[in-house]
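New to this. Help decode both lines:
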Amino acid sequence: MNIPFKLSLVTLSIISITFFACNKEDDPVEPTVTDLPNILLIIADDMGKDATAGFAEGSIKPTTPNIDKIKDEGLTFNNLWVNPTCSPTRASIITGKYGYRTGVKWANDELDPSEEILHKFIKDETDNAYSTAIIGKWHLSGETTTINPESFGMDYYAGLLSGGVQSYYQWQLTENGESTVQTQYITKVFTDLSIDWINNQSKPWFLWLAFNAPHTPFHFPPGGMHSQGTLPNYTDGLDPMPYYMAAIEAMDFQIGRLLSEIPQEELDNTIIIFMGDNGTPTQVAQAPYSSSTVKGSLYQGGINVPMFISGKGVSRTGEDNHLVCSSDLFSTIAELAGVGVTEVHDSKSFKALLSGTTAHRDFQYSESNNGIRDLWSISNGSFKLIVNANGEEELYDLDNDPYEQNDLLQGGLTTEQENAKSDLEEELSKIRM
């Protein structure tokens, strides 16, 4: 596994980095390389609130001590919205743009190589102060298996180009633009690659680690990584839940191994973000969700997913209920990296929430297009509107009906509800101008 060696810390420690702020009036004090935190973004694939410890949704939970530690030592974001499927969520994070701007609105949609990605933005705006990498699932180039994601502007890529694997034990690894067939457990390999890459860095780093767990196929992970006991090989007709839970627990085990391999001083200077990319798969949806309100849908079970942030500079703990969109991670991570910017494209930084309670947005937005029709959703936190391109609409009172059982448009609206609907429609039209 060829991982490029970086400049020495001695050389870098004497270099001051100039940061360029967008629309700033006064130049900030220029931080040195040693002031900058490492940033670790961990993305779980198909892990909704009903499959995550600490949330009321779902009655069957995996044992995840390492993810729990990230949660308990930091901040839980209760109102993160993503997209109903994985590619659009990843595209929104990496570009800071909503899907209708990039054309990535459903799984397997392709991100145009002309888009500026977060990794390149950080490197350009910090005068190359950061080493950057993506390890794991890419899924932004359709089903193309010949592209080298490094061409988008990151320093290093190793992982799975496509959206999934036929087997967690036999899959195609792309590294340095070359592909090889792997027979080791994919979750462990992504962790090994991450450990190797981090250990070879000598300046601040930003690692986007995208596991493909617990995405299907349902399978039995190696022993010692989970608490689900001995399971037969999965076949149709078996209960998929223990296999799904085992995959989450195996991922948690590997997250713990990764964090234990980072020297404590370096870990103390690291911000950790853990999140899901969309809701739970239909086969393992748990109440209060149903198979029609999880992954693939614009209902809360499909787009309101877990996010925990802890580590360097995160002084708040507990829960936060402010509205956040996945696109906001672009500006937030950039600001954490020292870039003097709080808003880029559709991305609004919520860095201030890590230490305070200042709201950064009044509405949140999500969308989808499954090849049949466009759908859009917008919320002010209390009311939520879903709009179908065919003109159909649904309106929900999330304060009193958080799981969207009662479409208010099926009856008469109060003045408050009429005003909320009008405001949401107006904001939606502004977003899509």
